[in-house]
């Protein structure tokens, strides 16, 4: 076992509270058309104390646009009201949005990468002195996203959500309770949710009367929207009402059709668009076919939005092929948070103006949205689905799938602490890649590497399920491609063992660690650093199971080899010294454990400095063994020193274990020890 398994976190100093602001990630639509009394109804419902309101309807019906306009009107009419926006399409993006909210209000603890951001935001929203607030949960279409993993068996109360406490084996930032429990019924706040399904909406709102169904536009509002989007250069004298009816008054379909017509004007007209739309019904229906089978829709449901997309895809390909290529690539990523860096070839010197023109083309069709961050894009799931289906029909699906994997793999860093911010942003895309196993050998190797790096980050964040799933797929592919006695295969096997240990599956972890160790001894030799890492991991999982004598023997072997191969002052050697001290402590061999801890601390201070994470960990462990012997005053003094130095660093601490970092014990534990000593 390496250093303790949780991260040390640090208490940050209170920051000056910011003024209420409107944090909507989209600009206001200058062409917005007021749809009768919808906004007035929405305003009245959200004005009720502790209101929870849901907008439900088909994709493309304009739910999010209504929510955006409501936010800006709220900000105008009540500038003292906080307006927040959270993406709720999947768990990773929901967690990221709540972290952003915590950053926006500068709630105490928001800088800690391991903080439970849902609890932090909940506590802030509940506090009336923070003022009025409106929180939008956008695209909450999947009810499972709003609930914790099935393995989380905790019960909830208003007190334990405030006082903390998370289940073992999961990140402190992960959703520990149903999302609705993190939305306090405060009289000074309101929650607005957009969703395609009533079922998901009822996960948040209390009753059917809290749901506001959003239907397609009426003919007059659809006519007005088409006129605005077509602009002054298009002949609007004939066919607009007919086109609106043909598109069944769906806002997304209307906007796309107008973009198509406006771009081709004056060589295109509303009537010409109508003729093309009606002529291509049978050909466009075939777009819904894909390799996994046939994508079926209810016969009573309209396919008009998908048919409109087909017309636009083919026109973009014929008029600007590079824009069609960009759309093809974007269709494989998670629909939100698609960074510009992911879309450019690594090392490419392509004309920036050309890329901007491609982006402008796709924005004109409303296929993508540019967020307020400017270099990040978003798409609708159905747009991506339609694009991939179209690629399949063009026999281009696998080539663009390989490009997606290659670009994401090049951008995804390994899971060390210094890479966590970038990993957090890219992790939703890595999860999307799980369903995109490629066929050709080169892409398959990159896919395995991508999943290995993503599993590394998931393991660091305490996400045992994700870590094991990704590392297992990576291991299986590498065994298939490289064979079992390959260094990359062994790295994936190593991560599978770590993930199983994190998830509490100690017997399976031990079996995997033994297998990895045996192979590394054969392939790399007993004194190779990776072999020593495997010995270290095996000792750790033995210790977890209470097999202290075997763990002690393995730790002593590892330490002796590291002293010979790496030297006594090498950081990995200090790791083994620390591990041996911990297992000695577990067996009640306190004097020997204390002596080993003092040696480790002295060497760490000399080699690394007093404020280095290794050194702080050694101080914490020494305090622990002193406490075990009843040396409370010395233990308290050591804990206070550790806490003071940790707060000075004001960073999460990580510890190197071979070539991978492992989370350590939170400083909160040190504070608890100090409380117990009083």
TrEMBL record:
Origin: domain of life: Eukaryota
SUPFAM superfamilies given in the database record: P-loop containing nucleoside triphosphate hydrolases, TPR-like
Pfam family of the protein (one): TPR_10
Domain Peptidase A2: 133-209
Annotated stretches, region: Disordered: 145-176
Biological process, per Gene Ontology: proteolysis
Cited InterPro entries: DUF7779 (IPR056681), NLR-like (IPR053137), P-loop_NTPase (IPR027417), Peptidase_A2_cat (IPR001995), TPR-like_helical_dom_sf (IPR011990), TPR_rpt (IPR019734)
Coiled-coil ranges from the UniProt annotation: none
One MF annotation (Gene Ontology) recorded for this entry: aspartic-type endopeptidase activity
Matches recorded under Gene3D superfamilies: P-loop containing nucleotide triphosphate hydrolases, Tetratricopeptide repeat domain
Protein's recorded name: Peptidase A2 domain-containing protein
């Amino acid at each position: 076992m390496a250093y303790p398994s949780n991260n040390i976190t640090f208490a940050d100093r209170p920051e000056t509270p910011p003024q209420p602001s409107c944090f909507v990630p989209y600009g206001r639509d200058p062409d917005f058309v007021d749809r009768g009394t919808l906004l007035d109804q929405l305003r009245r419902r959200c004005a009720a104390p502790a209101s929870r309101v849901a907008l439900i309807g088909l994709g493309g019906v304009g739910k999010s646009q209504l929510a955006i306009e409501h936010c800006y009107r709220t900000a105008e009419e009540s500038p003292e009201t906080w307006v927040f926006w959270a993406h709720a399409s999947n768990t990773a993006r929901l967690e990221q949005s709540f972290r952003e909210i915590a950053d926006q209000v500068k709630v105490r603890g928001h800088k800690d990468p391991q903080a439970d951001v849902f609890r932090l935001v909940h506590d802030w929203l509940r506090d009336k002195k923070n003022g009025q607030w409106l929180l939008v949960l956008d695209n909450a279409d999947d009810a499972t996203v709003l609930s914790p993993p099935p393995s989380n068996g905790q019960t909830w109360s208003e007190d334990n959500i405030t006082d903390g406490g998370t289940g073992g084996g999961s990140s402190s930032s992960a959703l520990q309770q149903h999302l609705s429990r993190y939305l306090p019924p405060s009289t000074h706040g309101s929650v607005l949710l957009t969703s395609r399904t009533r079922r998901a909406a009822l996960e948040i709102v209390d009753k059917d009367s809290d749901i506001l169904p959003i239907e397609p536009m009426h003919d007059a509002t659809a006519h007005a929207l088409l006129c605005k989007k077509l602009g002054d250069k298009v002949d609007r004298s004939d066919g607009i009402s007919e086109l609106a009816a043909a598109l069944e008054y769906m806002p997304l379909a209307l906007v796309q059709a107008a973009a198509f017509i406006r771009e081709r004007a004056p060589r295109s007209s509303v009537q010409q668009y109508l003729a093309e739309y009606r002529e291509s019904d049978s050909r466009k229906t075939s777009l819904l076919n894909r390799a996994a089978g046939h994508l079926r829709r209810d016969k009573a449901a309209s396919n008009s939005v998908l048919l409109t997309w087909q017309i636009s895809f083919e026109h973009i390909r014929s008029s600007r092929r590079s824009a069609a290529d960009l759309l093809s690539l974007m269709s494989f990523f998670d629909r939100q948070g698609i960074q510009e860096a992911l879309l450019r070839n690594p090392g490419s010197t392509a004309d920036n103006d050309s890329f901007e023109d491609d982006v402008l083309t796709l924005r004109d069709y409303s296929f993508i949205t540019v967020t307020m961050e400017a270099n990040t894009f978003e798409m609708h799931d159905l747009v991506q689905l339609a694009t991939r289906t179209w690629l399949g029909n063009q026999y281009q699906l696998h080539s663009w799938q390989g490009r997606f994997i290659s670009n994401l793999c090049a951008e995804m860093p390994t899971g060390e602490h210094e890479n966590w911010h970038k990993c957090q942003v890219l992790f939703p895309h890595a999860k999307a890649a799980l369903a995109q196993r490629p066929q050709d050998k080169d892409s398959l190797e990159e896919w395995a590497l991508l999943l290995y790096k993503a599993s590394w980050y998931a393991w660091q964040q305490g996400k045992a399920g994700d870590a094991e799933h990704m590392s297992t797929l990576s291991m299986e592919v590498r065994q298939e491609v490289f064979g079992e006695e390959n260094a990359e295969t062994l790295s994936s096997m190593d991560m599978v063992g770590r993930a199983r240990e994190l998830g509490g599956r100690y017997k399976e972890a031990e079996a995997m660690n033994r297998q990895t160790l045996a192979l590394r001894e054969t392939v790399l030799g007993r004194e190779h650093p990776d072999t020593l890492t495997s010995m270290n991991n095996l000792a750790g999982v033995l210790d977890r199971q209470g097999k202290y004598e075997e763990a002690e023997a393995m730790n002593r072997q590892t330490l002796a080899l590291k002293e010979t191969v790496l030297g006594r002052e090498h950081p990995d050697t200090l790791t083994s010294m620390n591990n041996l001290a911990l297992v000695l402590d577990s067996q009640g061999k306190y004097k020997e454990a204390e002596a080993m801890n003092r040696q480790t601390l002295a060497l760490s201070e000399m080699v690394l400095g007093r404020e280095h994470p290794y050194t702080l960990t050694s101080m914490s462990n020494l305090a622990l063994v002193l406490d075990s012997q009843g040396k409370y005053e010395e233990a308290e003094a050591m804990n206070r020193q550790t806490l003071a130095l940790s707060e000075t660093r004001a960073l999460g601490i990580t510890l190197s274990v071979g070539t991978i970092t492992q989370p350590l014990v939170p400083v909160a534990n040190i504070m608890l020890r100090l409380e117990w000593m009083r």
